[in-house]
Structure formats: structure tokens, C-alpha cells
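Record format v2
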Amino acid sequence: MAPASRFGHTSVNESAGEQMSENAVLPGTVLAPAAAHPWRWSPPRDTWVIRLFDYKPFLAALCLFPAAALLLVFLTYPLGLGMWLAFTDTRIGRSGVWVGLENFESLWHDRIFWLSVTNTLIYTGVATVGKFGLGLWLALLLNENIPFKSLIRAIVLVPWIVPTVLSAIAFWWIYDPQFSIISYMLRGAGMIEGNIDFLGSPWHARLSLIAANIWRGIPFVAISLLAGLQTISPSLYEAAMLDGATAWQRFVHVTLPMLMPVLSVVLTFSVLFTFTDFQLVYAITRGGPVNSTHLMATLAFQRGIPGGQLGEGAAIAVAMIPFLVAATLISYFGLARRKWQQGESND
Amino acid sequence: MTDKSERQGALSWDSIPRRVVTVYVPLVLFIVVLLFPFYWMAVTTFKPNNELYNYKDYNPFWVHSPTLQNVKKLLFDTDYPQWLMTTMGIAAAATVISIFASVLAAYAIQRLRFRGSNWVGLSIYLAYLVPPSILFIPLATMVFKLGLFDSPLALILTYPTFLIPFCTWLLIGYFKSIPYELEECALIDGATRLQILRRITLPLAVPGLISAGIFAFTLSWNEFIYALAFIQSSEKKTVPVAVLTQLVQGDDYQWGALMAGALFGSIPVALLYSFFVEYYVSSLTGAVKE
């Protein structure tokens, strides 16, 4: 209302009044936003502080500081510390001294360590093949024109969402020697006589763990590959069909090559996290029976935390690093290949 | 949509019975297998003990006389409510810290585009590839030295090591989808970069922030190895660790209570996802495509 009354007062000269009203009313209408954005009208507030915060290198450093500080202190430093610990005889509550390669030498002659290495390789290899075979199949099924698509997609993700340890406990119960529901079903179907002792013998236990890992890994693989499948242009399939390609040929010569980029990234992640898996094994068998299902991660934990031999545990963890580096390099070359395939930069 | 189904119709030369065998039967099998452990968890939770261990007289796939006895035992005879609160508190605190650090880092890398920002982005990507399994031993020694052993603070400070790389990566992807022209306009209008971040980029990035927040919260909820290694006293444990270490006493497994603990530890994350599953799938696939 104020601008209107002012207009009334100053409308002696019409053009001047109009100008006044423009000056008064127009800024008046934007008064609220102007108050919310004081920077529009405040060059005097451009003090050195503001200019400093607007100085790009300073601002970038400032923005990166929290993340960089946390990662350097709790990730980079421990990574280095872990490598150093591997060459010491540190125990819980006692800082160790440099012992050179002693930890690695004793591991070299340690039967359980080598068993854990082979277990880890078998576990990673078989579980990855299973996850990708079944996951790709599920992705292809989900890519079909099916009803309740988004609901089914949501349901499929559930095993991946739920805390691994909690679903592992469910598997522990499913694998119970006496009350296993799988044994019950197989007996009902007349396929077996007595109960299967899923976790009692080394190979049964290993295969049971791998099955649980595959179960948990399928959703992630399927949903990621589904995303990859949806980027494939249908015209490619039409062209292949017109050329008389069978379903299998379409899969091998169209789907797989087009899926390669996503596949390689997901594969790297999957291998990396299966190789360093800890939760499933710790929850279901704790490395038993008699240390026969230890993975490198569970053995490192066993020796390091409850066993108190931090140095030896760190040495086992460090022994995993070469495998992880190899997996990362594969990821790098997978990404590079993607650029080459699409013939354009992916930035 | 019609366009799509027509396309599908044109593409699928399969007959309907054949489609049932090649698509629907395997799909149903997949869903049954993927969901069975949860069904089994729920069934076990509500079974009375006499049914639980007697497969002869009762069909194990169904609950004949449902009981809340296991739930009651879990809620009143154990520290379960306490564990839930601890887990939520730790997950929320770690999420807030990580999102704060990640938003700033992602903004700096994606929008400020300083020299070497690509390298910083790459090193954050590599940080995500460092698994907790090789970090927990040195972190345990650090936690001891800092006097944080058996304190929730140990987890709140270490969870960001895997949350920040993930969220930063996710948010970089999200920031890319926001048109840079909006920021240029604001720059021309005389806004400082901090004002641009606060008033333009952040409001537009809210969906990305929500999905990163959900990711971070559930990842911290599900975390196991640090919580197992750094926390000792029962009442400070997180749900996954507590269910495994506190509910299993000796060789006498209380399967009913154990399954109840697993079920109620899974429900919060499952609910969270069911509300945001679309965000979730799109950001997951976005992250993978990246």
C-alpha cells in the first residue's frame, strides 16, 4: 500500500510521477526476493572474506577438506599402517617392533593360511560364475514384457538390501543339521534318505556358503545388467531378426557385446567384494569345521582380533592386496574398452 | 507404453505356452528362491517351540498356532530395543557426516572444475575399492590408541570411509544432470559460488541427496566387521552384531528368537527401500552406467 500512497503524493508531474512510481513500485514488487537475496544490491559487502570464498582454488580446497580429511585419516593412513603392521609383531595392547618378513615366512609354512587362500579363490570363482550366470538370466527375464514389472524389480532387490548377517543367520537355520528345511523337502521328494549335514563336512560347508553368496549376489548383478540391457537399442534386434538370427545368435552377437561395458564394471565390483567377503562366512560357519572354510578375511580377523596377533592378521590382509589391484586394473581396462566400443568420450 | 508393447509383440514370435515355460516359470522360481529365506524367517518367528522342532505332526511351511512368545522374549528379555536405537543413532550420525562431506566434495569436483579435479575424482573412486576387510586391523589399533574402543564414536568416524566415496560418486553423477547454465545465470547476476551452491545447486540436487542418504543409512545399518571389531559391551552393539553374538548362547540356539531378531533387524531397511525403490534403482543403475 505504501507505494500507492506515495504515488498519489508525487503525481504532480505525470511523467515524473510515473517514473517515481516505477522506481518505487517496481523495486517494491521485487522487494521480498531482494531481501532474500541481499547480494543483488550489496556491492559494499564484497569484503575480502567474500572474495576469498569466491576464489575458486580456495573454495575447492575448502569443499574438499572434510571428505579429504576423513578419508586421509581413516582410510589412507590405516592402509599404510596396515602394511607397516604386517612387518611387525604387534599384538593387542602392545606396540610391536619391525620383524621384516617374519610374518609372511610363517604364513608361507602355514597350512591353514594356504587353505584359506584356495578357499577364497574357489569361493570367488564359483560364486562369481553362479552369480553372473543366474543374474544375467534373471536380467533377461526381467527385460521381457511382464506384468508388475516394477514390483518384481523391487522384490528381487530384497536379498541385497537386507543386512547380510541377518540373512546369513536365516541360512544358518536353513542349513541346520537336524531341522533343515531343504533336507525335509528332499526327503519328501524321496531324493535322499537321511538329513544332509550342510555345514558338517568341509566340502558341504564350502558349497553351502557359496550357495548363500550366490543367493545374495544375484539381485545386484541382475538389476545392474538389466540397466545395461535397457540401453540396447531394439532396432539392433530387429535388424538381427530380419537377417534370420536365432534367439541364441541374437544373444551372443548382439546382447553380450553390447552388455560388455556394464558387465565388466559389475564383474570387477562383484569379484572385489566376494574376494574380501567376511560376513557370510563369519556368521554361518566362523571358518569351521576345523578351519576348513576360512576365507582370507575371516582368518585375518580370527588371528588379529580374538587371537590378538595384529601383525599376523595384517599380513594376511596385505596378502589380499595383489588380487585387489589385479581386479581394479581389469576394471580400468574394461572402462577403456567401453570408450572404444562406443566411439565417443564418456565424460 | 502401447508403442513398447507393440514392439515387444512384433519381436516375440514365441507362442503363449512357450512363453510361459521360458519366461514365467523361471521368473516365479527365481522369486520363490530369492524370497524363501525371509518367508522362513517370518514363519520361524511366529512358531511356538513345539511346532518349531516337530516336522512330523506339523507341516513346517505353515504356522498352525501363531505365537508372539519369541517376539516378546526378544523385546523384553534382551537388549534388542537398545540395539535398535544404537544402530539408528550410529547410522544417522554417520550418514549426516558423510552426506555433508560428499556434497561439498562432489560440488568441488564436478562444478568448480579446478586443475586436477579429475584426479581427485579418480582417487575417491579408488577409495571405494578399498574393502573394510583389509582396513579393520589397522583401524582397530588406531581406535585403541585414540581411546575410542567400545565407543559408538569409533563407528561414526570409520563408517564415512566407505560412505563418502560411494555418496560422492553418486552425487557427482547427479550434479552432472543439473544444467550448468543455471549456475552461469546466477554467476552473471553476481551470486558468489557459495550462494550458488546453497540456493541453486543444493535445492535441485535434493532427490540425489535423498537417495545418497538412504544408501548411506542402509550401508551403515548393514555394516558388520567394524562393529564386530570395535564394540565390546552388549548394550552398545549394533543389531547385526548383537543378533549374532548376543542371541546365540552356547550350543542351545533359540531359533525362534534369533529369527525374530533377524526379521526385525531387516524390516526397517526393507521399509525404507520400499518407499524409495524407484530412486534407488535409478541411482544404482546411474552409478553403474557411470
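The mean pLDDT of chain A is 81.
Residues 1-45 of chain A form one domain.
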